[in-house]
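# nightly structure sweep
# worker-07 picked up a monomer target from the shared queue
# config: single-sequence mode, recycle default, output format = structure tokens
# input follows
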Amino acid sequence: MLVAINRGTGLHPVLQGSGGFCMNLLADEQHPQLTHFSQSALRDQRFRSDD
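# output follows
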């Protein structure tokens, strides 16, 4: 599996400094959870809890 992180993102220096990362693989039915993490406009909703 190839993972490419854009050098212009805020994530790049974090990953570069950490020396490693974890990747989770999701099932097809979990696709709706990806929306908040794949769209910059929804960044403030990424870790929101409805509890």
